[in-house]
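Lecture notes, unit on protein representations.

Consider one protein chain, 73 amino acids long.
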Amino acid sequence: MYWTLELASKLEDAPWPASKEELIDFSIRSGAPDEVIENLSELEDEGEVYERIEDIWPDYPTKEDFFFNEDEY
């Protein structure tokens, strides 16, 4: 399983919180690349509900990870 920003961005509009099955269904319906569906399929399924993308990919960058100061513009 590997994630990239491009792949993970396909889940930004997912109906959070969501189960593994709901995320796979959303990915299929939204036309996400096959790699997203494969990555989600490889998640260990213990009936867990994921609250956000960071629960799936802990290294997902957030706005705080970028040094762009919006207040300056």
